[in-house]
């Protein structure tokens, strides 16, 4: 498990990280969210010792992290991260060797990952001759070639077409199932919701929300969606104690309920107004959780 | 050409691996880690250096550049030989009689000017002029005159010397000297001039001048590679991926070592090519080549690169765009230009000033000044060694400083990193 404890980093008057703490358990895909400038990239760089910390520490399996541990991690920086003029295959070989693999194993692993990510035919091409999507696949292959125990990926899905997203997303989930920890940042909240079991949301260098996607989606006040035939404006619900009509659209009424409200009593009240066509609890979408967390 | 460079690179990588292996055996590696045994400075540095060598050798710039240098060298060696071979003996026509002694003098003057002369008789002045115009003869002696078709059609030195010689000979005849006296005078030679002080003016060996030009050209090329290479790694963010696995000093050392190996390989190749070709075609161009001067040039090429590569690498880590590189390139190269210009000026004057002798001990200018002093035979071996040691010590200090700057600057993106920021604790 990767643990970040009280990370603090200041750039002059700007505080990029402000006592940030969270962890990435092995075997889980953790989505790392936050608005631009929240400190996501700085956090990921801190994992690899690529930025000096003013305070805090990064630990791996309950021990301070060092160069030897970092060599067993895979890293994909936000943009580029490959030699534009170098051949794809040689680039992977080089990075594999730098991570301590022998030449033969590296070649096999590189071939396997290029195949797995659908760019096997491009091994003899220069990176700069590849499309954006294929460069991103090669970048992921570069992060995976040495079979890392932890993957830290900065915006791995940005700018990809649906096929690319599926290919990379599949690999991330597969890696987690194989027991690796995966931390990736993204602005595509729907994708994060699909891929991740856990999310961490930060803002201005501080943690604002963390937990499993289910927990976050069901946390906060309960939301109810009701459709009553003959009462498209939801008049039946107005004035009920502890019930707030948050939205009325297309005959569907969204209600936010206080903890004291009994949903069965509410169902009865709806039935009295007319035939109930729809009545169900609503999960919050991750985008709502995100917006609320940043408010 | 390629094989020679590959051989040098392979030897260096093997040496690094052996070094890494020995370090491991000394137990510097934490046992049990999955990648134990390959975390050594030697292993990573060797991999980084090997990549540099491979990529540089593959680059079109390098191949074309090397080919161009070899072509220039080949031209400088072969063209004089060909033109010398094509230049037949000069025919000198004579209208009327010319004594045997005089004929001999005409040939002797030719030999001194480096021209082979055949003397031919012309039946009349008109014939001689016709022969001159057609180019059958290049010069004609007609009593008290020397005729040429055009002033530049034959070696000016030869014409002038021959005119002098024949003029003096005519004066002897008019003075009524016997032929024995005349030959005695013809054998007159200038007296030896002996100076009580050693001569201030000396001729510098060609090797040293060509060597300093080679050092300047190669340092400029390879240091630019270092600067650009570091900048490209920064701008493409590859450096983030690399520094997640290797330490900044390992990456930097591997880089400058790799480029340095290619530079040395190319230098050795050019020198070896020049020597072999000159010997094969019998060129006189490298007759002045002395082993001491040659070794001195190679030593200072290495020391010069070793010193400057750290400076350029550190500078490269502070920028990430081409235009930023351009603003750095000129101030960085000023000390080298100073050393180079001073070296060539001194080589042509032949008398080094005290200022120039000081430059020969400063690591920033010594790579240019010291080989010229060696070429002028103006340094004792211990002075050479002292300057080299100063350079090595300065290189160690500069490398340390450069590694610090590199470590702080290489991961800072956005605007160009200022030196003041680099001296602060954080980067």
How does this structure look, described?
The complex is a heterodimer of chains A (295) and B (427). Chain A has 295 residues and is of the alpha/beta class. Chain A folds into 2 domains: 216 residues, P-loop containing nucleotide triphosphate hydrolases (Rossmann fold), CATH 3.40.50; 63 residues, Alpha-Beta Plaits (2-Layer Sandwich), CATH 3.30.70. In chain A, helix 3 packs across helix 4. Chain A is elongated. With 427 residues, chain B is mainly alpha-helical. Chain B is built from 16 helices and 4 strands. Chain B has a 4-stranded mixed beta sheet with strand order 2-1-3-4. In chain B, helix 1 runs antiparallel to helix 2 and helix 3 runs parallel beside helix 10. The longest helix of chain B is centred in the middle third of the chain and has 34 residues. Chain B starts with a helix and ends with a helix. The chains are: A alpha/beta (295), B mainly alpha (427). Chains A and B meet through helix 2, strand 6 and helix 3 of A and helix 2 and helix 9 of B.
| Average pLDDT rating of chain A | 89
DSSP strand tally of chain B: 4
The H/E string of chain B reads HHHEHEHEEHHHHHHHHHHH
What is the helix tally of chain A?
A: 10
Treating each run of at least 4 consecutive H or I residues as one helix, how many helices of chain B?
16
The biggest sheet of chain B amounts to: 4 strands, mixed
The structural domain count of chain B equals: 2
State the domain count of chain A: 2
Helix content of chain B: 55-70%
Overall spatial form of chain A: elongated
- What is the averaged pLDDT score of chain B? 80
* Oligomerization status of the protein chains: heterodimer
Strand content of chain B: under 5%
What is the gyration radius of chain B calculated from CA atoms? 31 Å
């Amino acid at each position: 498990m990767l643990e970040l404890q009280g990370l603090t980093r200041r750039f002059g008057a700007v505080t990029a990280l402000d006592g940030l703490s969270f962890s990435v358990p092995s075997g889980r895909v953790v989505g790392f969210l936050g608005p631009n400038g929240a400190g996501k990239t700085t956090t990921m760089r801190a994992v690899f010792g690529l930025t000096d910390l003013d305070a805090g520490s990064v630990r791996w399996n309950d021990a301070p992290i060092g160069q030897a541990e970092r060599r067993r991690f895979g890293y994909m920086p936000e943009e580029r991260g490959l030699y534009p003029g170098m051949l794809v295959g040689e680039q992977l070989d080089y990075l594999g060797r730098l991570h301590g693999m022998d030449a033969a194993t590296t070649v096999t692993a590189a071939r396997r990952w290029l195949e797995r990510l659908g760019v096997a035919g491009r091994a003899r091409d220069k990176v700069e001759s590849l499309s954006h999507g294929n460069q991103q696949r090669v970048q992921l292959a570069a992060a995976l070639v040495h079979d890392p125990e932890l993957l830290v990926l900065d915006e791995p899905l940005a700018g990809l077409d649906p096929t690319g997203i599926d290919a990379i997303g599949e690999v991330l989930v597969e890696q987690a199932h194989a027991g690796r920890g995966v931390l990736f940042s993204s602005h595509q909240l729907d994708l994060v919701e699909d891929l991740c079991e856990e999310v961490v949301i930060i803002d201005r260098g501080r943690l604002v929300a963390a937990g499993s996607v289910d927990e976050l989606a069901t946390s906060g006040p309960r939301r109810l969606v009701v459709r009553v035939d003959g009462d498209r404006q939801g008049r039946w619900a107005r004035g009920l104690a502890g019930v707030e009509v948050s939205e009325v659209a297309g005959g569907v009424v969204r209600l936010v309920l206080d903890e004291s409200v009994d949903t069965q009593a509410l169902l009865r009240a709806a039935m009295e107004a007319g035939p109930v066509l729809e009545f169900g609890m609503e999960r919050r979408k991750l985008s709502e959780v995100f917006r609320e967390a940043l408010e | 050409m390629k094989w020679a460079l590959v051989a040098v690179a392979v030897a260096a990588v093997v040496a690094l691996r052996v070094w890494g292996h020995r370090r491991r055996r000394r137990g510097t590696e934490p046992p049990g880690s999955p990648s134990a045994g390959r975390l050594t400075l030697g292993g990573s540095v060797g991999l980084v250096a090997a990549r540099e060598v491979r990529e540089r050798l593959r680059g079109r710039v390098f191949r074309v550049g090397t080919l161009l240098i070899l072509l220039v060298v080949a031209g400088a060696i072969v063209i004089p030989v060909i033109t010398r071979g094509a230049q037949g003996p000069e025919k000198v026509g004579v209208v009327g009689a010319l004594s045997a002694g005089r004929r001999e003098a005409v040939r002797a003057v030719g030999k001194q000017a480096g021209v082979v002369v055949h003397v031919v008789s012309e039946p009349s002045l008109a014939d001689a002029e016709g022969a001159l115009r057609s180019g059958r003869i290049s010069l004609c002696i007609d009593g008290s005159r020397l005729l040429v078709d055009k002033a530049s059609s034959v070696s000016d030195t030869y014409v002038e010397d021959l005119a002098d010689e024949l003029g003096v000979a005519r004066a002897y005849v008019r003075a009524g000297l016997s032929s024995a006296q005349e030959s005695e005078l013809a054998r007159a030679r200038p007296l030896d001039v002996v100076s009580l002080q050693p001569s201030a003016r000396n001729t510098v060996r060609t090797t040293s001048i060509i060597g300093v030009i080679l050092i300047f050209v190669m340092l400029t090329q390879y240091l630019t590679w270092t600067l650009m290479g570091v900048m490209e790694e920064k701008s493409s963010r590859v450096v983030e991926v690399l520094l997640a696995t290797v330490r900044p000093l390992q990456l930097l050392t591997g880089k400058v070592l790799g480029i340095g190996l290619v530079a040395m390989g190319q230098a050795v190749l050019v020198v070896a090519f020049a020597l072999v070709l000159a010997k094969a075609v019998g060129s006189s161009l490298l007759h002045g080549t002395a082993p001491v001067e040659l070794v001195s040039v190679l030593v200072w090429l290495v020391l010069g690169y070793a010193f400057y590569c750290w400076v350029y690498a550190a500078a490269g880590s502070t920028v990430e765009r081409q235009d930023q590189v351009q603003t750095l390139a000129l101030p960085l190269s000023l000390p080298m230009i100073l050393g180079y210009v001073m070296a060539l000026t001194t080589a042509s004057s032949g008398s080094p000033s005290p200022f120039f002798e000081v430059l020969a001990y400063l690591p920033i200018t010594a790579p240019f000044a010291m080989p010229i002093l060696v070429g002028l035979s103006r340094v004792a071996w211990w002075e050479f060694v002292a300057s080299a040691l100063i350079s090595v010590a300065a290189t160690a200090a500069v490398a340390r400083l450069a590694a610090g700057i590199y470590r702080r600057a290489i991961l800072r993106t956005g605007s160009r990193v200022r030196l003041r920021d680099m001296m602060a604790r954080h980067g």
